[in-house]
Amino acid sequence: MNSTNLQIDQFQTLKNSIVNVNFIKHASFFFEVNNYVIYVDPVDEATDFSKLPKADLVLYTHDHYDHLCRKALKDILTERTEVIGTLEVETALKDTGAKHIKVLKNGEKAEISTSAAEISVLAVPAYNTTQTQFHPKGRDNGYILTIDGMKFYIPGDCEDMPELADYKGLDVAFLPVNQPYTMTIDQCVNAVKMMQPKVFFPIHYGDTDTNELMEKLNAIEGIEIRLRNM
Predict the structure, then answer these.
(1) Whole-angstrom Cα distance, residue 14 to residue 174?
(2) Which of 2, 68, 141, 213 has the most other CB atoms within 10 Å of its CB?
(3) Dihedrals φ, ψ of 186, to 5°?
(4) pTM: predicted TM-score of the whole model, two decimal places
(5) Are 181 and 157 in contact (CB under 8 A)?
(6) Gap between the Cα atoms of 39 and 65, Å rounded
(7) What's the CA gap between 132 and 44, in Å, rounded?
């Protein structure tokens, strides 16, 4: 995969900004709004990041190898790139050249200063409820990214946590679907029912049976389900 064949979904905010969501692979994707670029967990397994747009903001959910790649960051980094992550992410990114790293704990929020759009980032819990050794509660982040009033839920690695019931009213949500590290298909269906986003994308689904996944997701009424090659 390279920058010429990224899968792109487009959304329009209430302020008439156009937000492009560019899917890369696994849990890596990026947003573009008025030439402002926000990466999520960039990892260079599937693309050459040196051919992608430079980053204004990078969000890391945690420091596992399939979510954090130092080389990918170096390829998109500039002097002004802002990075948000956990304490473990901050440690992992030492000596990468990143000059603006902000650590957020669950429940903390950052307002992003840019003329491109009104952007805020709220860190929310991301943890396993059954296989707790992989993603213990309180360590990793999910994020609610708000762009000109449009809310995008970025999950990190998690299962159907009870906190998801608090996130109703989301415009777009992403969830990972591959046990034992994240959710089973039935946990994903339960999570989507809890959240009730307008649009939902499965990500990080590995060898999950996507036919079974989509059959069960499409049975949920009132939610648009979109599957991309992740």
Answers:
(1) 21
(2) 141
(3) -65, -35
(4) 0.96
(5) yes
(6) 16
(7) 27
